[in-house]
């Protein structure tokens, strides 16, 4: 059983930055961040494997977001820079036993989500 708790969301102006955190209890080999805007599907944002040596990003966030993890602290992070209005969503962290993955169906455990709102 893996438990995930996100934090760090909030209201930020366009162009600003936020860092999301995901506290992990249990074994979580692969970790991912997803987001879901109102009325839309949950979309892939970023993923990372256990060592941190492999990552993947959605095209919409490449160059702006960075996923990282600190296994000693059981934490996963999503640094979000140059935020845009379209980044507004609830952000979820998720874990799996397979590594870097982009589909929601490839993840076994999910956090409760944290709201990110980007204003103009």
Major beta sheet summary: 7 strands, mixed
What's the SSE pattern? Answer: EEEEEEEEEEE
Strand content: over 45%
Mean pLDDT: 97
What does this structure look like?
This protein is an all-beta fold. Helix content is 0%, strand content 52%. The protein is built from no helices and eleven strands. Strands 2, 4, 5, 6, 9, 10 and 11 form a seven-stranded mixed beta sheet that branches. It starts with a strand and ends with a strand. The mean pLDDT is 97.
Summarize this, please?
This protein has 120 residues and is mainly beta.
Descriptive key words:
single chain, 120 residues, mainly beta, 7-stranded mixed sheet, 4-stranded antiparallel sheet
Structural topology:
Elements: E1 3-7, E2 10-13, E3 18-25, E4 30-36, E5 42-48, E6 55-57, E7 65-70, E8 75-80, E9 89-96, E10 109-110, E11 114-119
Parallel strand pairs: 2-11
Antiparallel strand pairs: 1-3, 3-8, 4-5, 4-9, 5-6, 7-8, 9-10, 9-11
């Amino acid at each position: 059983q893996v438990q995930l708790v996100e934090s760090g969301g909030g209201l930020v102006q366009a162009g600003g930055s936020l860092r999301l955190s995901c506290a992990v209890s249990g074994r979580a080999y692969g970790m991912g961040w997803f987001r879901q805007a109102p009325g839309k599907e949950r979309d892939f944002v970023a993923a990372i494997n256990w060592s941190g040596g492999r990552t993947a990003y959605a095209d919409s966030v490449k160059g702006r977001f960075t996923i990282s993890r600190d296994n000693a602290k059981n934490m996963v992070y999503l640094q979000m820079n140059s935020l845009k209005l379209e980044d507004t969503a609830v952000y979820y962290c998720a874990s799996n036993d397979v590594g870097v993955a982009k589909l929601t169906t490839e993840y076994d455990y999910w956090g409760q989500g944290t709201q990110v709102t980007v204003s103009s």
